[in-house]
Each structure stands twice: as C-alpha cells, then as structure tokens.
TrEMBL record:
The lineage of its organism: Bacteria, Pseudomonadati, Pseudomonadota, Alphaproteobacteria, Hyphomicrobiales. PANTHER family: BNAUNNG04460D PROTEIN-RELATED (PTHR34109), VOC DOMAIN-CONTAINING PROTEIN (PTHR34109:SF1). InterPro entries: Glyas_Bleomycin-R_OHBP_Dase (IPR029068), Glyas_Fos-R_dOase_dom (IPR004360), NTF2-like_dom_sf (IPR032710), SnoaL-like (IPR037401), VOC_core (IPR037523). SUPFAM superfamilies: Glyoxalase/Bleomycin resistance protein/Dihydroxybiphenyl dioxygenase, NTF2-like. CDD domains: VOC_like. This is DUF4440 domain-containing protein.
Length: 287
C-alpha cells in the first residue's frame, strides 16, 4: 500500500471514529464518548479550568444530566490530516438543546482534535474548544457568531459611529423594528437572526440621522427582558407636528401632550407599544 493509500485509509478510519464520538455526544452516552479517548486525554474545554484530563465518566455524566433529552451536536467543515500514527481534525461545532430549567442554548465554537494511533485503533488524545471574544474592551465571548453569516466582522469598512447609541433589549425586536419604521421613519441598516431563525441578536436602525440598536431577550445567556424605566429617547426635529401625528397614527400612546413647555421648547412624550418612552422636540418657531 502506497503512502497516499495509507493516509486515505487512516483518514477514513478517523472519520468513522469522530462520527461515532459525535453520535455518543448526541445520545449523552458518557462511557462511549470516553471510549474514543486515550487514558490521559488532555481537554481544553469551554468550561473552566484552563485544562483537565478526561479521566472518568463522572464529570461528563453530571454535565449530560443538566440537559433534557438528546443533545444537538454536529460538526461543520470537518478537515482531517494524518501522517503516520498522529492526526489532527478541525471543525466548527454547533451545540444546542434544552436545559432542565427550560433554557435553550445554541452556539457555535471552534474545535480541534488531536488523535494518536494505538493498538486499539485511532484514539482522541487531545481536545481543544474555543470561541473568539470581542476586541472592544468588553472581553465578551462571541457566542452569537454563525458560520453562515456573510458579515465580515474584521472589515475596515465598518467605521466608528459618533455619539452615544441606545441599544434596546425588547420583547419582540422584529415587531419593534417594523413599528419604528411606521412611527418614526426608521431605516434598516442590518438585521441578524439567532440560530432559531426567529429572534434577533442584532438590528441596526437609523432614525432622524442617528443610530438605534435592538435585540431580543436571550435569558439562556443571561440577557432576560426587563421593563424600560427612567429612559426617554429624544427626537429633536424641525417639524414636531409631522413626527407627532405619524407616531400617534401608528399606535404610540400620548403620555405628555405636545405643547410649548415652560423651558421654551415645543415638547411632548409618547410611549410605544413595547414600553419605550419617546420625546419629540422642536424649537419654538418665532413669527
């Protein structure tokens, strides 16, 4: 058998091992998962600590027990390279499912497997999982990325934005964006959906020349919905009557009539159907 044939045969064997390992993860079969690893398989997982050795099934069984039913666990863009008794496999992995408390996590992460050929066949000797984090100073894990997205997050064409931008967590970001289009003439710049295809992880609108961002609640990641309190979004416009009538016609509730305020501005407040307060402001026109 030539070297090329040997490598091809090894890759086929490794692919079969990984396929069965993934199947065991889906079925939450800890002994079967660990059977594909070496005795001292080194694991760099998403969870602390920085490194651990997969020595037994107890920890894996405990983690599996926090999920209802089977796991959603699949690999995408799997690539395998083998040479002699050593091989590496890389993939993007999607994990999803339902926790006992009802939360439904869904995320993509990067995975590398180091394999070694033993007397029992190919075994996983090293497992490395990671997610990127946002380089904006927040150090927030970028668990909202999707390999199917066409957005270039490193593109130089994404310029910095001036001013302070409101980012609203609303119950139904899709419906909110549609209402803002009718009530305030909002223009959509970008809309990105979560893995469920329903909730928005990001929606960028422009209203009156400024930016407004929206997203749906994601309680499974610690971002539950809370009522907005103590915040009013101000629209300073030339024609307050036009903006006011359009918003009211769309369904905004009047909470403070539009009139000349004691400080001299033409001013009124509205509440939209999603609980957000707005002020429409214009300078008083002098005769």
């Amino acid at each position: 058998m030539s070297d090329i044939e040997k490598r091809t045969d090894s890759i086929a064997q490794i692919r079969a091992v990984i396929d069965d390992w993934v199947g065991a993860m889906r079925e939450k079969d800890a002994p079967r998962v660990l059977a594909h690893g070496t005795e001292n398989c080194l694991v760099y997982s998403l969870a602390p600590p920085l490194k651990e050795t997969a020595a037994g099934a107890e920890g894996l069984e405990q983690w599996f027990s926090t999920w209802k039913g089977s796991l959603g666990y699949r690999l995408q863009e799997l690539e395998i390279a083998a040479d002699g008794d050593v091989a590496f496999a890389t993939a993007l992995t999607h994990l999803s499912g339902e926790k006992l408390d009802g939360e439904k996590p869904a995320l993509w992460f990067r995975q590398t497997l180091g394999l070694r050929h033993t007397e029992e066949g190919w075994k996983i000797a090293h497992q490395h999982e990671s997610v990127p984090f946002y380089m904006d100073g927040s150090f927030k894990a970028a668990i909202d990325l999707d390999p199917r997205s066409e957005i270039d997050w490193q593109a130089a064409s994404r310029p910095p934005m001036a001013g302070v931008i409101a980012y609203l967590n609303v119950r139904d970001a899709n419906a909110t964006a549609e209402f803002y289009s009718l009530a305030f003439g909002a223009k959509e710049v970008e809309r990105r959906y979560a893995e469920d295809g329903k909730r928005l992880i990001h929606c960028h609108l422009t209203i009156n020349g400024g930016a407004l961002m929206l997203n749906d609640p994601f309680p499974e990641f610690g971002y539950a919905w809370k009522p907005q309190e103590g915040v009013v979004l101000h629209l300073v416009v030339d024609d307050a009557d036009l903006w006011w009538k359009r918003a009211v016609a769309a369904g905004a509730e009047v909470t403070m009539p539009l009139e000349v305020a004691f400080w001299g501005d033409y001013y009124g407040q509205l509440r939209d159907p999603f609980g957000i307060s707005w002020a429409i402001v214009a300078p008083v026109k002098k005769d």
